[in-house]
Amino acid sequence: MTLTGKMLIGQHAITGNSAAIRAINPATDLPLEPAYPGGSGEHVEQACALARAAFDSYHATSLATRARFLDTMADEIEALGDELIERAVAESGLPRPRILGERGRTCQQLRTFARTVRAGEWLDVRVDPALPERQPLPRSDLRQRQVALGPVAVFGASNFPLAFSVAGGDTASALAAGCPVIVKAHSAHPGTSELVGRAVARAVEKSELHPGVFSLLFGSGREVGIALVSDPRIKAVGFTGSRSGGMALCKAAQARREPIPVYAEMSSINPVVLFPAALQARGEALAQGFVTSLTQGAGQFCTNPGLVIARQGPALERFISVAADLVQRSPAQTMLTPGIFQAYESGIGSLLEHAHAQPVAVGLKREAPNQCQTHLFVTRAEDFLADTALQAEVFGAAALIVQCADDEQIRQVIEFLEGQLTATLHLDDADVEAARALLPTLERKAGRLLVNGWPTGVEVCDAMVHGGPFPATSDPRTTSVGTAAIQRFLRPVCYQDFPDTLLPAALKHSNPLQLRRLLDGQREA
Ligand code: NAP
């Protein structure tokens, strides 16, 4: 399939009319063909008008039709074959096995949402039947279900060119909820975006849906992206990326005549607490697990373990020494974009200049452009607590170890942290009470708490939470990974005293969708 450099507005391939972007292969620093001219206000207008026109019919599709559409998207992405894999490798610098795995995850994610849609639990049907004889006042017949919010703008993430991009988690969950989607492609991987966008458009056509269910725009975030978020027909936004980018979108969404929710996943340093008995018993294995997690994918995961917290003493010194040795032997790895590499270098520069961040190890020298050398730093809890700069995310394979005097100082360090996606505890039986004492603080700080594991690797499943208090996300009440992500794009509507014929299928008296309703306060079997 030849790449065209065109956007997709519904089923129409359109050439943009603003400055063109060209992907750069970060492994060579060379540009890739073709050029992708950016869209402008008129394209945002067309895509939004089409998405609005598609909304009522798409939202009214049966659960079976919508689920089949999500399954077809997965089939169409798989049918792209090696061309997609090669392009994604070239545009991201990520190794082929990682991209193959990510395609698998993307398709599994779509099929998981298809299963979720079919099951219908997300409609959260609640029925309080009429009580005409109730004294002193009768009760009306009240029925509640969830409905889709409306067209959603999705910003593709740089670090997951498939699984959190054009047909990634935000798109899958919004489409599952019944919302048309307009994607603002990430400028780092336009070719991958075009290929996947065309696969989605084919799925729309094969499923005989309104063409406005999906559009794909290229161009600058500050122009096309802000115009999209500001358009009154857009009703919610999904984003993964920098704190400044996420906050710019939140600001634009709040400045609208009708403010809308922005689900922005931004920055997290994912603290790991090493408790004394665990550190004593298996410090070396912990150091190995830590460096493996830290260096995976050049550290370009939102769940990268960037902060280790432990009591000072010989066990921690041994952990640091083993980790430093492993870091020194870790190869440099290509980062996603020259911009992300520069941001990493600048973050490392700030730490190197910091009076209280002591460098303990640097990875092997880079051999090609845009390669990330792993960095490990150590600081004392008093110094960490004195300067918020030490908890700024350095996106890449960099971590800081905080040495604490006692459990109370460990708690203070955690209390001092901003909101996080994850917090990890390494503990043995003798550590359980100290861990229990820390839990109330940890629950306030993070969306996912792990014991004796590593935070990288986020399962797509029903129980997953990939979210957390600001700045991990702009809205801590929900998740961007896993089936609960569908709730971001829903809102409840109550139908009072409706005749059965006017009720949506989910709420009819005969319960034709066979949903497990909350009926008069009791969950149906
Ligand atoms: P980014 O710069 O935030 O870009 C993400 C998307 O948002 C792009 O489509 C971009 O458009 C748009 N955007 C950026 N700033 C904007 C603004 N002020 N107004 C409107 N739209 C805007 O993120 P990135 O390119 O993926 O990476 C840059 C940095 O983000 C990294 O170095 C890292 O620090 C952080 N990051 C964090 C995570 C995480 O999960 N925590 C993940 C990825 C990146 P353009 O196409 O115009 O750039």
Automatic annotation (TrEMBL):
Keywords: Oxidoreductase. SUPFAM superfamilies: ALDH-like (SSF53720). InterPro entries: Ald_DH/histidinol_DH, Ald_DH_C, Ald_DH_N, Aldehyde_DH_dom, Aldehyde_DH_Superfamily, ALDH_KGSADH. GO terms for molecular function: oxidoreductase activity, acting on the aldehyde or oxo group of donors, NAD or NADP as acceptor. Transmembrane segments: none annotated. Residues 17-460 form the Aldehyde dehydrogenase domain. It comes from the Bacteria. This is 2,5-dioxovalerate dehydrogenase.
